[in-house]
Design goal:
single chain, 395 residues, mainly alpha, 2 domains, three-stranded mixed sheet, two-stranded antiparallel ribbon, 17 helices, 50% helix, globular, binds iron/sulfur cluster
């Protein structure tokens, strides 16, 4: 089978798993959102423009997801989501309605940090052992504060405070120009030409960008939640649809795409070594380390842009992602999945859900993943042919 067909089969199968096993953040149990969801746990779409306090439901949800995207970058996603949920519920019960009034988080900083500390301790009791077993680590190392830091203030001000300040600043700036909006964050985000450009500006914009508080992966995860998972987007243009933002590319996605053979079908092992994506013997136990973030911007080597897939890619880049004004002369690896999915029923959100499902339930980052039970084992090169893709590489 040709490279293109191998890659297409892999992506479609992963998307199929994603559609069957979606990975939405479970926010229906959050105190501020209880009335936003119906009894089946589905977001009531037709009421997204309804006013809740000063803002629409869409705005409040967007503020929350903006914060969650920043926090979701930590080491134990299950624990992080618990922490965010417990702290949000705790603060709202104390009338600190920080999504409705971001300033309240800072005004009552003592209560905010106490809440974070206390909920973090509780989560440690239930999650630390499980996390340690799954990651071949020790429970004592369990810490959700990120940057390997144990100080709550840095975590609260930097990781919580920065995303909460953006809608507050927008509110101030809008009032300076007499603009009245019940959706300042939503208006700001949808001001961009595409979901992809929005996700870049979420990080890079000089005034409103989150800067180092958010990585490329988390910015794309936010785009996925906004466009795909919760359908918050008001825009109907193709540049804001299911393939108009890049895949959130993290170590989990990279590991599955490497072991299954997707990455090695579009460039050689030597290419990845030269790009320092593969760093020889730099993994935990002396295995080769795959630094997934280094893939960004690297070019597809084995498929021509003059192919049919290349034509799809050109359209993706100029009309969907809108990152190029003219047709590009080469294809960037991290944007290739968009071209593969263009004429299918699947979107980047399905692909990401599939990668999360496979990566967190079967394709563990050690040499004994649950391949026998993995739903894509029949087409996985690591399982079928190249055992060394599993035993010799770590992400
Ligand atoms: S078959 Fe094994 S190596 Fe391949 S994706 Fe599944 S768990 Fe990972």
């Amino acid at each position: 089978m040709e490279n293109i067909e191998i890659c297409r089969n892999l992506l479609l199968k992963i998307c199929e798993c994603g559609q069957k096993n979606p990975n939405p953040p479970h926010i229906q149990d959050l105190f501020p959102f209880k009335h936003y969801f119906n009894s089946e746990g589905n977001l009531i779409q037709e009421k997204l423009s309804e006013i809740d306090g000063l803002w629409t439901r869409r705005e409040i949800l967007t503020r929350f997801l903006f914060l969650q995207a920043v926090l979701d970058q930590g080491p134990d996603i299950v624990g992080i989501r618990h922490l965010l949920k417990d702290v949000t519920n705790g603060l709202y019960l104390k009338e600190i309605r920080f999504l409705h009034k971001p300033l309240d988080f800072f005004r009552e900083l003592g209560i905010s940090v106490d809440e974070i500390l206390q909920k973090h301790e509780n989560i440690k009791l239930t999650r630390a052992e499980i996390w340690a077993t799954e990651n071949k680590s020790t429970a004592g190392r369990y810490n959700l504060f990120m940057d390997n830091s144990t100080q709550v203030l840095g975590y609260a001000i930097y990781r919580w405070g920065v995303p909460l300040s953006v809608p507050y600043l927008l509110e101030k700036d809008f009032s300076k120009i007499n603009k009245i909006s019940t959706e300042p964050l939503v208006d700001y985000l949808e001001n961009y030409d595409s979901a992809e450009i929005m996700s870049q500006e979420v990080k890079d914009n000089q005034r409103y960008g989150l800067g180092k508080a958010i990585g490329d992966k988390a910015a794309h995860l936010f785009a996925k939640w906004y466009v795909h998972t919760f359908s918050l987007c008001r825009k109907k243009a193709i540049s804001w649809n299911k393939i108009s933002y890049e895949l959130p590319f993290d170590s989990n996605a990279g590991r599955v795409l490497f072991r299954t053979g997707f990455l090695t079908n579009i460039a050689s092992l030597k290419n990845y070594e030269n790009w320092e994506v593969i760093q020889k013997n730099a993994g935990k136990g002396g295995e080769h380390y795959i630094r997934v973030t280094n893939i960004r911007g690297k070019k597809v080597q084995t498929i021509s842009i003059e192919s049919d897939l290349g034509s799809q890619y050109k359209e993706i880049s100029t009309q969907y992602l809108k990152t190029r004004k003219r047709f590009p002369s080469s294809m960037e690896i991290q944007q290739l999945p968009n071209a593969f999915l263009k004429e299918t029923k699947y979107g980047i959100g399905d692909l990401d859900d599939g990668l999360i499902y496979i990566g967190t339930n079967f394709c563990f980052n050690h040499n004994e993943p649950k391949c026998v039970k993995c739903p894509i084992n029949e087409i996985c090169i690591g399982f079928q042919e190249k055992q060394e893709f599993i035993s010799n590489f770590r992400t």
